[in-house]
Amino acid sequence: MILTSRRRALTVLVAAPVVCGLVVAGLLTSVWIALGRPTPAAGAVWFQVAKLANANYTGAPDQPFFVLVAGTGARSDDPGQQQDDPGLADALHVIGINPALRSATILDIPRDTEGPTGAKLNSYIVGSNDNFGLRAEADAVSSVTGLPITYVVRANFPNFVQMIDEIGGIDVNIPYDMADDNSGAFFSAGPAHLTGDQALAFSRDRYSLPRGDLDRSVNQGLVLLSTLQTLQARHPSIGDTVHLIASVGRHVKLDGLGVRDLMALGQFALSIDPNNIKNVLLPVAASGNGSNLAKTADAASLLDDMADDGVLQSH
């Protein structure tokens, strides 16, 4: 059967749906709307995606942009309960995407990093009624990093598990042996295929890691990168594509995004080779303010390097 141009595009669109949660939630939703116009968030909400005030990508921009991915400790997948108890943002990552260079950077930010008011950076998502505090969290992260946040993505524990299981698990090269009763992470170093529960355990472990929470932040970034690599390696068929779109597209809550935005963002994702994505930790150390962490002197040059074009040339 000869594929139409649209179907060829759809096949490619889901080959790399995860540069971050934004691509998972946004790209697939936009294509599914084009196919069947379902009601977004008709099922359990897996992701909430917000476009901030100055974001207006409608064509094929070549300028870099920045996405905040916030994974929270909320256990409920019920939107009403999430609003009452959204959970702290214990996974914080700013992803810089440069469409012109077809490159990206995942900046892993430890949850105990000190925010602009002295509170831990993971706490700014709590206590605001404005889309569960996504904008407040984005403002705090932007203040600390100097990176202009354009989009914010939020997911919680059950969201994460359901999403990973829906795409058939992910392949992760585990960097070291892990044995932690608290998170349930029991893995040997080396390549592994992880289910949603296993990926969550891997992302949560901090007690069996050499640098504790710092290594946990890096591992969370590794999960984002591994998801992209896994999906690209599978080369899904048309049937696989439609099934994935149908399953994911109904589980996204959108705020301020339109189909044109999402399709453009999807095109960016398609152009990025995982080998051109760096996963780096924000340099931090004890701040002297309780258990807070503060940026070290090395952080300034790294953030300056990332701020101008979203990618790192000298780090």
> Which structural class matches the secondary elements?
alpha/beta
Structural domain count: 1
Our Rg estimate from Cα atoms comes to 18 Å
- What's the helix-strand series? HHEEHEEHEHEEEEHHHEHEEEH
Give the strand line-up of the largest sheet: 10-1-5-2-3-4-11
Estimate the global geometry from the Cα principal axes. Answer: globular
Strand content: 15-25%
What report would you give on this structure?
The protein has 315 residues and is an alpha/beta fold. It has a single domain (16-166, 235-307), classed as Nucleotidyltransferase, domain 5 (2-Layer Sandwich), CATH 3.30.420. It is 38% helix and 21% strand. It contains ten helices and 13 strands. The chain has helices at 5-13, 21-36, 79-84, 134-145, 157-166, 196-204, 213-234, 238-249, 259-270, 297-307; strands at 47-51, 65-71, 91-98, 103-109, 149-155, 170-174, 178-180, 185-187, 190-194, 252-255, 277-281, 284-286, 293-295. A seven-stranded mixed β-sheet has the order 10-1-5-2-3-4-11, sandwiched between helices. Strands 6-9 form a two-stranded antiparallel ribbon. A hairpin with a 4-residue loop joins strand 3 (91-98) and strand 4. Helix 2 (21-36) packs across helix 8, helix 2 crosses helix 9 and helix 5 packs across helix 6 (196-204). Residues 1-42 and 56-60 have low confidence and may be disordered.
